[in-house]
Design brief:
- The complex is a heterodimer.
- By secondary structure, chain A is mostly helical.
- Chain A has helices at 3-37, 54-61, 63-94, 101-109, 116-126, 133-149, 162-173, 178-189, 193-201, 206-217, 219-234, 238-243, 257-267, 271-296; strands at 40-41, 49-50.
- Chain A is 71% helix and 1% strand.
- A two-stranded antiparallel ribbon of chain A has the order 1-2.
- In chain A, helix 2 (54-61) crosses helix 14, helix 3 packs antiparallel against helix 11 (219-234) and helix 13 runs antiparallel to helix 14 (271-296).
- Chain B is an alpha/beta fold.
- Chain B is built from 17 helices and 13 strands.
- Classes of the chains: A mainly alpha, B alpha/beta.
- At the A-B interface, helix 1 and helix 13 of A face helix 1, helix 3, helix 10, helix 16 and helix 17 of B.
Chain lengths: 305, 450
């Protein structure tokens, strides 16, 4: 390394030093200490007592831990594909060259700027079974269906019915697709015009172009959005926490893994146990991300390759 | 060029670190007049906060050695735990009495027995149900600020509409349910228009319904007893509601009820006739109910007519966290606050009764809540007691709330719901009790402070 290279390296390191310090102090250190504490009985105010793998064996036997994992997977499994499809659909619509498209883009992005706590409060009222707007819209539909088919269906009491509480939350989570829409839009605008022109010459219609040109070209963007929403949805916490007033929802249907970690750490003072669950959640997200990378490898097109 | 940049890029982190160091030193705030500054955190906001602020001002004006700085802190138990863990707790903090066991068991509080004795503060000064909320492991951990006791609150107009005597509240659970049948009525759509009573409204004491059935959910020493007869009976009582009024109908009823502190509260807008509540109701009824709202307070009925007067008594407790910088001075304020005239002033302003045995007649005469004496009698009842003194009370309560939920939704039978709580909480209790016994003596003997 020449003197100049060393100098450049030092300058570069200094420029990213705020991030490095932040990473070491706010990410790596808490991560390592929580891994250490997960092998201890630690009530925050008293010294941690080493208990080996007891937290982990407790976890395996803890029905609430499994319930929270199940709820989280249920939420993720529906909300990830749903939100990706909605976001992609909106992005394709917003990509049409129409008058006023900038206004529409702004409108669709706006809900993403609403803070999560406000979102929780807002949707709690929208989803109220008796007084909420969602059911005000649904009721004429169910009433018509009942009149036509002699059935007896009513719009659900979303947040107090264990069968529907998670669906209500999934519904509400679609509110935040704006970020993904923006990223998709950027991807869509990067698709080379020449490919569409070639497809036009071959006589492709809109769907064929979307399927054979657009989607393959933006596949890295889909992958990125997919991974981001995977990580986000496994950490779902704020909206259900606010929606349930800091409780777990009817029949514990809104007890997610992150919520359970929070309860154990800050209400039950079982910080060691909470650390152990946190570590397991980390491993689950890591494994799923690696799996998604592996599975999608052959389907992602990188122009540089 | 690159030299200048590297100089700047070097300075940025240095400035950041320097700022951090500066900010972290902000806790200390010495006064020019040399008075010792006491940090006091409490949970109150609005008028309740102002009531204590007035007393703090009185104290600060009454002497010139100590100055109390009073702050309103939300989620106080969580923040106190974190502040104590960070080694920077306030000198005084206002917890709820149900928080005392977990803080005491983890050595987070200063033992007050010696300080109390030296300031001539004794057990005999306080109502027994209040004193037991301040103690744990035979040690004193805090002194009361404002207490509360729960009872039956009923809407007299709804009693009249149902042809019941509005001045005669039910005295047994059987009577309560007979009244309930009289009062409850449905509209043409099959929705509940008026409900007599619902154990889940407001549902703040669901874990403790067993008290009114003559038992408890733990043996008050070393075991969980959620499968005891009284506890099962309380769950069976809950199970009778969806059977009589319909699970869906009850869900819809609860969905149409607004927040507690709003005009849509079903008790305030005449949709439910009888609720289990406390002395704060006077204030909320004044604010949110119609002007003509006619209501009464009495003990909540028990199964056994001879045990009339079962109530939950709780109190706000002021503690000195371990690690507080000025425990002696903090206790001086605390003991000043315990003088009858000061506690009475505070409690009257917060619409509560006094926790002291001796209460002046003028206290009741001038009290803004005309029904305050009934709550005080509830706190004096031999059947008054606090919530379960468990260190994992939050987790336990959530399990119990879920048990009542599952029974109300008809997903589980009362026996199944009780067994599920017993299985999980029994195991957790045994584990924490076993771990506690190992450290117990060391923790309770440690009187390093003050």
């Amino acid at each position: 390394m020449t003197r100049q290279e060393r100098q450049r390296l030092r300058t570069g390191l200094m420029f990213i030093s705020p991030w490095i310090v932040g990473f070491l102090v706010l990410n790596l250190y808490p991560f390592l200490s929580s891994a250490y504490l997960s092998f201890h009985d630690y009530a925050v105010l008293s010294k941690p007592v080493f208990i080996g793998t007891e937290n982990y064996s407790d976890m395996l036997a803890d029905e609430l831990f499994w319930k929270s994992i199940w709820n989280t997977i249920y939420f993720a499994a529906i909300s990830i594909p749903l939100n990706l499809i909605i976001a992609l659909f909106l992005a394709i619509l917003l990509n049409f060259d129409l008058p006023g498209k900038k206004i529409f883009r702004t409108i669709y992005f706006l809900p993403s700027l609403v803070p999560l706590v406000c979102l929780g409060v807002l949707w709690r009222w929208l989803l109220n079974g008796q007084l909420g707007l969602v059911n005000t819209v649904l009721r004429p539909i169910t009433d018509t269906a009942n009149a036509l088919f002699g059935s007896d269906v009513a719009p659900p009491n979303w947040l107090v019915d264990p069968e529907f509480a998670k669906l209500g939350l999934i519904f509400a989570s679609a509110w935040g697709v704006g970020n993904a829409v923006v990223i998709f839009l950027a991807g869509l605008q990067d698709v080379p015009r020449t490919l569409y022109e070639a497809a036009d010459l071959d006589g492709c219609n809109f769907w064929q172009k979307t399927w054979h040109v657009t989607l393959p070209i933006i596949s890295p963007v889909i992958y990125f959005n997919g991974i981001m929403s995977l990580i986000m949805s496994f950490q779902v916490f704020a909206v259900p926490y606010v929606m349930t007033d800091g409780q777990e929802g009817p029949g514990r249907s809104l007890l997610f893994t992150a919520t359970y970690i929070f309860f154990n750490a800050f209400e039950n003072w079982r910080m060691g146990y909470a650390c152990a669950i946190g570590l397991i959640l980390f491993l689950i997200i890591l494994a799923l991300t690696l799996l998604a990378t592996k599975v999608s490898e052959r389907h992602i097109y990188y122009a540089g390759k | 060029m690159s030299k200048r940049f590297s100089a700047i890029s070097f300075r940025v982190p240095v400035i950041l670190v320097a700022l951090l160091v500066l900010l972290s030193g902000c806790g200390e705030n010495p006064r020019e007049d040399g008075r010792v500054v006491i940090q006091y955190w409490d949970k109150w906001t609005g008028s309740e906060h102002q009531a204590m602020q007035d007393l703090v001002d009185d104290f600060n004006a009454s002497q010139n050695e100590i100055y109390v700085e009073f702050l309103s802190i939300s989620f106080i138990s969580r923040k106190l735990m974190l502040a104590a863990a960070g080694g920077n707790p306030p000198d005084l903090a206002g917890l709820w009495s149900m928080n005392v066991p977990i803080f005491a068991a983890n050595g987070a509080l200063t033992q007050l027995d010696d300080l109390a004795a030296s300031h001539d503060i004794h057990e005999s000064d306080y109502l027994p149900a209040i004193w037991s909320e301040l103690t744990e492991f035979d040690r004193l951990w805090g002194l009361p600020s404002t207490p509360g006791a729960t009872g039956l609150h009923w809407n007299k107009d709804l009693f009249r509409e149902a042809g019941l005597d509005p001045e005669k509240p039910p005295r047994t659970i059987a009577e309560l349910e007979a009244f309930n049948e009289h009062i409850t009525r449905f509209d043409d759509d099959g929705d509940i228009e008026v409900l007599g009573h619902l154990p889940q409204e407001p549902g703040w004491w669901l874990p403790n319904w067993a008290y009114w059935f003559g038992g408890d959910v733990w043996n008050r020493k070393d075991a969980i007893t959620v499968e005891s007869d009284a506890s099962i009976a309380a769950l069976e009582w809950m199970a009778s509601y969806p059977e009589r009024f319909g699970a869906d109908e009850l869900l819809r009823f609860r969905q149409a009820s607004g927040n507690f502190a709003s005009a849509e509260n079903p008790f305030f807008n005449g949709r439910i006739a009888m609720v289990h509540q406390g002395p704060w109701m006077h204030n909320f009824i004044e604010k949110f109910a119609p002007k003509s709202f006619d209501w009464g307070v009495a003990p909540f009925p028990s199964t056994d007519p001879d045990r009339y007067g079962v109530a939950i008594v709780e109190t706000d407790v002021i503690v000195i966290p371990r690690g507080a910088k000025h425990p002696q001075e903090a206790f001086k304020f605390l003991s000043w606050l315990q003088r009858p005239e000061n506690l009475e002033k505070l409690c009257a302003k917060q619409l509560k009764f006094s926790p002291l045995v001796e209460t002046s007649e003028s206290f009741y005469e001038n009290h803004p809540n005309p029904k305050i004496k009934i709550y005080r009698e509830l706190a004096e009842s031999p059947y008054a007691s606090g919530r379960s003194r468990l260190t994992n009370i939050m987790d336990f309560n959530r399990d119990m709330v879920n048990a009542f939920d599952q029974v109300a939704l008809q997903n589980l039978t009362p026996e199944e719901a009780a067994a599920a709580v017993q299985r999980r909480q029994g195991k957790l209790f045994d584990q924490s009790y076993r771990r506690w016994l190992k450290v117990r003596d060391a923790r309770l003997e440690d009187k390093t402070q003050p």
